[in-house]
User: Which sequence fits this backbone?
């Protein structure tokens, strides 16, 4: 039995198999060939003379390619193999698999090779929730292809399978009766295409139509993906540091980001970051925006594509099922059967309260780095609509604050902020507030969106009246916020205010985002920074989502005590914004050291245990890895460590790096200055500041 | 004819001559609406927010080269233009097909109405209610 899963992908098509390359999915087992949120193969099993194979080794060469070295026979008994079987698989709009058999005997050998194929055409949501299918299945042989087919009314999906070598094909698979000469080789290429079906059935067209591009006359192009990855790696800046791990972490980030790139049907050839691999390879407003922000100093293409793609799908009407409003930036897009039949709202779903203000933040930050005023002009309408949403549609309580409450009470999201699990927002005593909820970081984002929107209005849209109004509103919001959200007896900002205007008074990492947004009054900033690096929030590796001592604190609770690298990266940026260089360096040190332990790939979250207690960061189990915003975290931490900040046509470099970095240099940073190099030397003794050598419990100075 | 929601929809679309939601976009779309084997056509031309709608008798030289050609049956299209069916879901379902530019269809769907019952409002929920629904700590 093989348990180890191998996954490869390209765009939103991916294959998850066991280490032999076989797929044997059950209803809820997440293996298979998936494309556009639908499983196109749930069974793909290779046998030789009726025998299953055993993996000698498996190699995922690239994120889109894997190779399986196999021998006949199974189980634990040693097999004296006279035959090698090599499967090499590459994902395209389905996958191609080269199957090679090598005969090591001195005489020819007769073999029966069998590939069994089947598909349940499950929607990803069905895989998750184990739901029943409503349509009909039927397999056909068309022009030497095996076509697996599923149909429900006009919705049809097909899997087309063909082989370059002649085979006897039946409705369950391919059989090859072959003779391999002495010390000889036999091979075939199997081509599997995930296709959109026609209501009339596959006979009507006699060739597959890869999903989403029917009628576009686009031939099936097989891009040279290895070349594409190489080109991507050549375009980005280089990073070198005396701390060897930094270069390794950086390269891991770039390769993972490359794998997370995703092209939409409307913007072919352009890439935006999807949220996570493989289950979240789709447009997520929040994740795509935050990852684009993290990566901006290194590559601006992700940001521009994200801005364009989200504008195309920006809300234009009131739709309670999708929690859509005019101007709202989408939360999540899905393409599966349940979305198609409006059993799920993801076409797209709009239930988030942060992506819309963050959209304006990204647009402004993008212009500050690139000087691309044209895009800001092209996206003036969507940006204005986003700014309008903040005041017109997000102020659910009429109190001048952005709040959220789902209108789709069945399949909508309860918590529409980044901490979107059910128990993420609570009072100190563990009680939950009602709805609508106005969480604090949303007010920070709204403030930042107004300030940045004002800059764009004044300098690029030439609309002084709008700029004046936004600046006035921002100043007013900041004043009210610092009064209404401030928890006097704790000297920090409440995580939210509830329906009665009462402060939801637990201490959370959300206050770090407030520094990033700039909504915190100077007089309150030091106290916020002290909490962030204090013993209740700071674990030694990073800042916990919820502070120790709160009723719901749990070091292995999803949003109630774990440390999120992405969260920390934005907090580090925020600490720099308010001049807390040493504190920012502590966050940079903690998360980069964790990244080193995780071999360069930071998980979505890790446990909030005290660093001194576990010595290693303990990974929180998640289905997706890499996760886009965890992948982007080291990039933003490098920015925070070097203090990179565009100012007009110049790039300011103001390093405050942990000692460990020694010398750090980033060469060829792209931007309005064309290309620039940035250098820094690690001078902040973060070990001393974190008190690690003194026993691990002392809060840092400051 | 006034009872025909599709004609009504296109008449309303054309009436103002300009739609802010289309600003910055230019595209042409031809709708081939199948009414029991009989095709009806509408041709929409958008030029940086300016909207013109015509109703050609058939495929003409002008509308042959539309950026997007949308094929759809009358009944589901009536549901789409009155907000009872979501256009993007209909596309995924195969109820509506788009030949040519998907971007043109993405632009067009911006002017479609939301579901008839949607109000944008929902009653607040108190902390007590939320706590009652939750398992105790």
Assistant:
């Amino acid at each position: 039995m093989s348990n180890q899963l191998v996954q490869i992908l390209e765009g939103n098509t991916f294959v998850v198999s066991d280490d032999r390359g076989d797929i044997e999915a059950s209803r809820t087992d997440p293996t298979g060939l998936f494309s556009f949120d639908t499983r196109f193969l749930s069974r793909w099993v290779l046998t030789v003379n009726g025998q299953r194979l055993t993996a000698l080794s498996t190699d995922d060469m690239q994120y889109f390619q894997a190779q399986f070295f196999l021998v006949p026979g199974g189980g634990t008994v040693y097999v004296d193999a006279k035959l090698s079987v090599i499967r090499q698989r590459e994902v395209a709009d389905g996958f191609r698999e080269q199957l090679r058999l090598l005969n090591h005997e001195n005489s020819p050998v007769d073999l029966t090779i069998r590939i069994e194929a089947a598909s349940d055409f499950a929607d990803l949501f069905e895989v998750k929730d184990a739901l029943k299918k409503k349509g009909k299945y039927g397999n056909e042989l068309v022009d030497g292809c095996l076509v697996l087919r599923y149909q429900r009314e006009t919705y049809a999906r097909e899997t087309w399978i063909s082989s370059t070598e002649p085979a006897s094909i039946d409705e369950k698979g391919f059989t090859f009766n072959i003779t391999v000469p002495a010390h000889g080789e036999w091979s075939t290429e199997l081509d599997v295409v995930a296709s959109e079906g026609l209501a009339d059935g596959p006979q009507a067209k006699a060739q597959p139509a890869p999903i989403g591009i029917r009628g576009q006359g686009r031939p099936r192009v097989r891009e040279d993906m290895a070349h594409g990855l190489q080109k991507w790696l050549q375009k980005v800046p280089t990073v070198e540091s005396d701390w060897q791990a930094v270069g390794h972490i950086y390269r891991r980030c770039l390769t993972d980001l490359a794998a997370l790139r995703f092209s939409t049907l409307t913007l072919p050839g352009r890439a935006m970051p999807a949220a996570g691999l493989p289950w979240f390879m789709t447009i997520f407003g929040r994740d795509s925006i935050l990852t684009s922000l993290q990566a901006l100093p290194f590559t601006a293409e992700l940001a521009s594509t994200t801005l364009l793609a989200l504008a195309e799908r920006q809300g234009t009407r009131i739709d309670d099922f999708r929690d859509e409003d005019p101007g709202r930036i989408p939360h999540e897009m899905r393409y599966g059967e349940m979305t198609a039949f409006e059993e799920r709202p993801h076409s797209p779903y709009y239930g988030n309260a942060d992506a819309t203000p963050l959209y304006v933040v990204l647009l402004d930050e993008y212009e500050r780095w690139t000087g691309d005023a044209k895009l800001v002009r092209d996206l003036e309408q969507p940006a204005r609509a986003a700014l309008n949403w903040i005041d017109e549609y997000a102020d659910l309580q009429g109190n001048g604050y952005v709040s959220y409450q789902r209108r789709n009470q069945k399949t909508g999201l309860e918590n529409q902020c980044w901490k979107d699990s059910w128990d993420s927002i609570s009072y100190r005593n563990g009680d939950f507030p009602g709805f609508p909820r106005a969480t604090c970081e949303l007010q920070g984002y709204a403030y930042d969106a107004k300030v940045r929107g004002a800059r764009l209005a004044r300098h690029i849209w030439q609309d002084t009246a709008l700029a004046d109004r936004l600046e006035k509103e921002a100043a007013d919001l900041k004043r009210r916020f610092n009064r209404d959200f401030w928890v006097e007896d704790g000297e920090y900002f409440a995580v939210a205010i509830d329906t009665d205007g009462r402060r939801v008074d637990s201490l959370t990492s959300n206050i770090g985002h407030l520094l990033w947004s700039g909504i915190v009054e100077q007089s309150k900033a030091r106290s916020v920074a002290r909490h962030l690096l204090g013993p209740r929030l700071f674990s030694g590796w990073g800042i916990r989502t919820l502070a120790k001592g709160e009723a719901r604190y749990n070091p292995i609770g999803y949003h109630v005590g774990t440390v999120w690298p992405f969260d920390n990266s934005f907090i580090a940026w925020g600490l720099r914004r308010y001049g807390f260089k040493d504190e920012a360096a502590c966050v940079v040190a903690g998360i980069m050291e964790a990244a080193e332990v995780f071999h360069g790939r930071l998980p979505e979250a890790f446990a909030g245990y005290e660093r001194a207690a576990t010595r290693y960061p303990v990974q929180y189990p998640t289905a997706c890895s890499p996760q886009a915003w965890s992948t982007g975290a080291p990039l933003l931490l490098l920015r925070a460590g070097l203090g990179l900040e565009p100012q007009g046509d110049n790039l300011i470099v103001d390093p405050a790096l942990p000692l460990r970095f020694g010398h750090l240099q980033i060469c060829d940073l792209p931007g309005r200055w064309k290309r620039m190099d940035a250098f820094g030397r690690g001078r902040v003794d973060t070990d001393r500041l974190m008190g690690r050598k003194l026993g691990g419990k002392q809060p840092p100075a400051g | 004819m006034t009872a025909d929601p599709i004609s009504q929809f296109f008449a309303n679309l054309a009436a103002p001559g300009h739609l802010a939601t289309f600003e910055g976009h230019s595209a042409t779309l031809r709708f081939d609406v199948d009414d029991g084997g009989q095709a009806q056509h509408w041709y929409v031309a958008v030029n940086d927010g300016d909207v013109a709608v015509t109703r050609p008798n058939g495929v003409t030289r002008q509308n042959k080269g539309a950026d997007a050609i949308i094929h759809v049956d009358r009944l589901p299209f009536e549901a789409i233009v009155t907000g009872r069916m979501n256009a993007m879901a209909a596309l995924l379902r195969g109820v509506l097909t788009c030949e040519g530019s998907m971007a043109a269809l993405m632009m067009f769907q911006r002017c479609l109405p939301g579901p008839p019952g949607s109000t944008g409002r929902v009653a607040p929920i108190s902390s007590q209610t939320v706590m009652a629904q939750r398992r105790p700590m």
Notes: Chain B has six helices and five strands.
